[in-house]
Amino acid sequence: MADIFLSVFSIVMTAIVGVLSATIRAQREKARAFDDRYKSEHDLLLKGMQVLMRAELFKLHQEYVQSGKPVPLDIKEQANSVHEVYARLGGNGVGTHLWKELINAHASTEREYDHD
After folding, report:
1. How many Cβ atoms sit within 10 Å of the Cβ of residue 112?
2. Which of 74, 88, 102, 108 is the most buried (most CB within 10 A)?
3. Could you tell me where the DSSP H helices lie in 1-116?
């Protein structure tokens, strides 16, 4: 009788361990898929932000450097902030080149925006 009980107990325990193992494996795969999706979406958001920062540098460069207008000091400050984000996001030399030209352009003592 004890042999039958041990056999049944062994089979039941093996089944329980198998189910638990499969459940843990499925949860790990689900978590890994979520992590991969999160990383992919995060990378896309960072790339989108980089594109926006580069577009802002292009806009400022066109408005001031290409047109030959003096660059107000607050615009230079804005360009610095934009370039810092752009560079930290891994921006290449194009945005840095535009930023350097903005910073080196003739400065205006007037401010573009009122800071009341």
Report:
1. 15
2. 102
3. 2-60, 73-88, 93-104
The residue to which tokens 């949860």 are assigned:
27
Summarised one tens digit per residue, pLDDT across range 44-70 is: 999 999 999 999 999 999 999 999 999
Banded pLDDT at 15 (limits 50, 70, 90): very high
Q: Which region holds residue 50: left if phi is over 0, alpha if psi is between -120 and 50, else beta?
A: alpha
Q: Determine the Cα–Cα distance for residues 97 and 17; give it in Å rounded to an integer.
A: 62
**Token digits for 95?**
């945005």
The residue length of the chain stands at: 116
pTM above 0.90, yes or no: no
